[in-house]
Amino acid sequence: MARRLFAKYGAERTTMNDIAEASGKGRRTLYTYFKSKEEVYNAVVNAELMRISSTFLAVARKPLPPEEKLVELLFAHLSLIKEAVERNGNLRAEFFRNIWQVASVRKKYDRIEFDIFRKTIVEGINQGIFEVDDLNLTTDIIHGCVKGLEVPYIFGRLGNGLTISISRPMVRRLIHKALGKGDK
Known about the structure:
Blueprint: H1 2-9, H2 16-23, H3 27-33, H4 37-60, H5 66-87, H6 91-97, H7 99-105, H8 107-126, H9 135-148, H10 150-154, H11 164-179
């Protein structure tokens, strides 16, 4: 209920009364579970991120070579974030206006994602595909880069006019050049 209200009216214009009414609960009951509207908003964002996380984990479980899996994970990350932001109407504006609030809520999701990227890089190292001097730093850089691409990707400003058939090989080449053994 709250997600739909936030998506329709935005977090700023949605009140605790609106949420209580839409859920069929009294305000007192609502305040039993949440101290503020911000907590409700954080719970909505967190639920959305956990939905994204489960889909991201499904991509991570695909039996792909590490290099290809990284490409899939990068594109999955961007597509899932874009889909979530677009699906939630006015939450899209909130996402960009309250990016720090969203960042604090998404810490758990970021940890899951970081661990998946790290595991995939370790798979590549163990298979002799990747050569990495500092695993955690490399993972931080990859994770930071993909997060930095979210806003341009959501707004369609990333690779103006590039199709997936052009961009995937380009991303694959970048990963190969950055992590590939003997290509440094």
